From TrEMBL:
Superkingdom to which the source organism belongs: Eukaryota
PANTHER family: GAG-RELATED PROTEIN, ZINC FINGER CCHC DOMAIN-CONTAINING PROTEIN 3
Origin species: Oncorhynchus kisutch
InterPro entries: RBD_ZCCHC3_1st, RBD_ZCCHC3_2nd, ZCCHC3, Znf_CCHC, Znf_CCHC_sf
Record domain CCHC-type: where: 188-204, 206-222, 225-241
Any one GO molecular function term: zinc ion binding
GO biological process: activation of innate immune response
Name of a matching Pfam family: RBD_ZCCHC3_1st
Protein name as it appears in the record: CCHC-type domain-containing protein
Amino acid sequence: MVLNTSTRSVPGIGLANTIRFAWKEKELEPLGRETFGRIILMGILKLTVKDVFCFQGNSLEGAYNVALYTEEKHDDILRRARAVGGERPMSHYEITSLAKNNFRVVTVNIYNPYVKDEEVRAFLGRYMDNVSSARHLKDSLGFWNGRRGFQALLREDPKGHGGYLHPPAMFSLGADRGTLFYARQPPFCRRCMAYGHIFASCSTRKCRFCGSEEHEAKDCDKPKACHGCGSSAHLWRGCPARQRSYASAAGGGAGAGDGGRRG
């Protein structure tokens, strides 16, 4: 294999539960795929065929990518591989995870099915990066159930729950309301629209529109902000981000991979 430890073959959202073993010795011949599987995977790391979703060689990058079925197994094998990383033959490999901990599959339910996919995508792009195109989820009969699936990366935020910025679990796009959920989503309060607790334990009287603690949403007389970008200069129906999302979808140009955040 050719030595090249770049990750150009890895998509921006990463590869779930995948560990890369990249050969780093220029003067030595790397292990062949079968030898690597027998000695490294099955011998040192004690993996079985049932643990591995895919064991793939990448000759252009001089590496083997090993995708595990579960996140728990990925984390366990990564710890085990690094623990013996200084011993031969493991020391001949650079061991990295291709998974991204901030990757999420987001399921969105808009009660009005005629809301455009790109409008929802533009909204998610306010909080998340690398938002994919929508996938309409269907029931066992083949009917679309109103839910849409998106793949995206949580944006890092030191002040956010768990170090990430999370999109609100309940939201509005103009007059249309929706909800969203994803794995490892923090508890969400529908009273103050904040993460970290639920309605039953909320002690905050906080307006979800302007953030004031002096009144609740029903008594708010502040100018309403755009549901898409947060600006008070316009409402959702006139949001520039909403229009850019249409152009991105139609033209496939800049912004098509970021939820319409770029112009």
